[in-house]
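Incident review: delayed structure delivery

Summary: a single-chain prediction request sat in the queue longer than the usual turnaround. Root cause was a stuck worker, restarted by the on-call engineer. No data loss occurred. The affected request and its eventual output are reproduced below so the record is complete for anyone auditing the incident later.

Affected input:
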Amino acid sequence: MTEVAEKSVAEATASMAAILGASFSGGAVPTGPATPPEEEVERFEFDTDFQSKIAAHVLGDYGFMRRVGQLIRPEYFEGIGDAAIVNMALKYWNRYGQIAPKSSHGVLLKAEIDGGAIRGDAKGEAITAIKRLWQEDLAGGLHAAEQVADFCKHQAMTQAILSSVDHLGKKKFDKIEMAVKEALAVGINEDGDAYDYFERIQERTEERMDKAAGKVPPQGVTTGFPKMDDVLYHRGWGKKELSVLMGGAKSGKTTAMIGFAKSASLAGKNVLYVTLEVSAKIISERLDASMSDNMMKELGKNIVDIDTKIRDIHKRAGCLKIHEYPPGSFTPSQLTRLIDSYEAKGIFFELVVVDYADIMAPDHRINDPIENSKNVYIGLRAVAFEKNVAVLSATQSNREGFKATVAKAEHIADDFNKVRIVDLLISINITEEERANGEARLFFAASRNQESNFTIFIKTDIARMKFIVSILKIE
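Output delivered after worker restart:
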């Protein structure tokens, strides 16, 4: 290439880089035929306030991280404390594919300090930062993700153009093309997460060792009963999974779901309860009885006592939102939109209860009832996976299952596809004698990730709307 040509290329490239650089920094943008004076080039604001908001999403917003976690770098953050916390959160995300629960932040931060990742003055900055980030409003995560994606694409394209100067001088056009393609590919993750099985064995080994050492808390949403949590693969209801309770009419399915929703909320988890069969007011009254340890028939007598107990419980509980819809009117896509509406307000659920799946509607109804049912269950499981929540619902057993002492997988009503789709199927079994004694049995009928065909024997108190008072034995 001649000296004149090289000069021309360098000037052109420098001009393009200057335009991009000015559009980011807010400086004056060079104008010319390609950029009319009246045309404004978009400015990207990445000030300290915005950085803090992004750091808070890195720390606590799964949906945000799933979209743009692969783009975030600690060096993007000017504040030493924010950078340290982002680095800590990214390490956890990259190792476990999850955001770290708030309860483990102190342990993780101490490990970063003890390990030398956070040194000197950065220690105090990091402690201050994590307390501040806990208070950040996580509303608008999708919009924040889009802003970060635009920023990172902008930076990547700037670097691609700058690096092309040398490649162009050496006529390495393939490298220029590759650099530009890689820059254009930067953005929100819409293609799913690639997982290199052999390359990540070390990560899986370290995760198992950390779990065995108690460094990583269980990812499951607690049932409220340690003995039951212990027999569940995730030590509770599995996130990204669909768990279903099966039982005949009046077997206690709704009472069970209310109880599990209550337990999760009392453990500090945010819970969404969607009811298609019983009104939200009745669900709330059953919760009042269970929360306050009062009999349903005594709610009108112990009014002040119940009010005082519920208000006291509220101080330490996660949120518990109840929505009611007519039977056959609520679809999986509506559930997604409902969850999205809460996430836009900064509320992220860990357990979603749908009471119950058999009376939901498919997103696209056809004349085949079996196919409609299948689409509902596939849709629910997709919601669990996409929103990183544990979804708990219920289904009816058929006539033979209702009569049987133990309802098994083959006793599921209407459509056996449900057994294939759900991650965990637990049947509720109760004889008249057991009912009179306040007892019941939970049979693990089918499971994708753990053993099944065993029974949990439970003590109940239906008068106080307590599906499980205690676990008697497991066999």
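Verification: Residues 141-169 form the longest helix (29 residues).
Action items: add queue-age alerting; document worker restart procedure.
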